[in-house]
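Dear colleague,

Thank you for sharing your sequence with our group. We've completed the structure prediction you requested, and as agreed, I am returning the results in plain text so they can be pasted directly into your records. Please verify that the sequence below matches your submission; if there's any discrepancy, let me know and we will rerun it promptly.
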Amino acid sequence: MRKVALDLGARKTAYCEVAKGAVIQRATVTAVETLKSLLGPEAPPAVVALEACREAWHVHDLLRSWGNDVLLVDTTRSRRLGIGQHGRKTDRLDAEVLAFALERGGIPVAHVLSPHRREMRRLLNVRRALVEARAQYVTTARGLAREQGVRLTQCKADVFSRHARQCEEHVLAVIEPLLKILDAINLELEVVDAALSKLCETEPIVALLMTAPGVGPIVAASFVSVIDDAKRFRSSHHVESYLGLVPSEDSSGGKKRLGAISKKGNSYLRSLLVQGAWAVMRGTDRQQPLRLWADAVAERRGKKIAVIALARRLVGVLWAMWRDGSTYDPALLAAASSRGIRRSSRAFENQASQMSSLSHRASEVAASS
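Please find the predicted structure tokens below.
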């Protein structure tokens, strides 16, 4: 099959076709649809590579419908192909480098979400934008009220407008335009939440994941929309790494140094998981195995580190539930936690024994000298 690469730009798309180590055709178009003469149903089928981006899924589906084999390139590993090296990065050059990499083989392929999960992610993105906009307007309204010596009642964002309209008239006159916008946002959120709830009803896995503590419908739906297929990950650690919840590592110079979490992957899902971890930490069930485990970490490392560690462990729990098709089992998790604590205790005892032995040897050497 022909080997083709596309570089999707904001205004233009670069096309590059190679064969036997040489460029045989180039093109620059303003829309992918205009490449029908080169990649359409009437043209010989091609293997097409393009970097994952906002419009990549649409282009992927279009090219597949024309009879081509499409590979989405993982952008986090695209530099290993030579893209952007030597200080030269243009759409034309990127397409060429990608085309030659395709011909050589070994392209780092990105996962393509199923259409159903794409729709779920779109609704979640709309909801996120509305929630963030609402939070900004609430913060602004509170600030304007404080400028006039009035502290508005603390309440949930969805009822803020009703409470704020009970304040003094001179304050209300200033913030009323913001409250009207908040009313409109709340109405739109109801529509989006209804659509999202209807979509989640067709996803039994969402209800299953919600049996875990700290996991509500938004966290569960976000997890499903990002992971898409639990079986594409070999272990829970791979999922944790995919979501940027594992420590960054610097092993240069022969020494292994662990830093803060890598923060790779979907930042929104990562923030939701951290919120879920806080919900577990602040929950009323103090005997919850996840809470007990996190409290033990907090005693050693502090609460903030414990929350991140709990978010990471929550990822592993959710992935295992999805993989096995099982609901949350606190007894099973408690047993696993006990085994982990025993392993940690044995490791600590071994380390203490080694330190004691070294100290004893040092004393003997000092005495003999």
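Summary note from our side: The mean pLDDT is 87.

Kind regards,
the structure core
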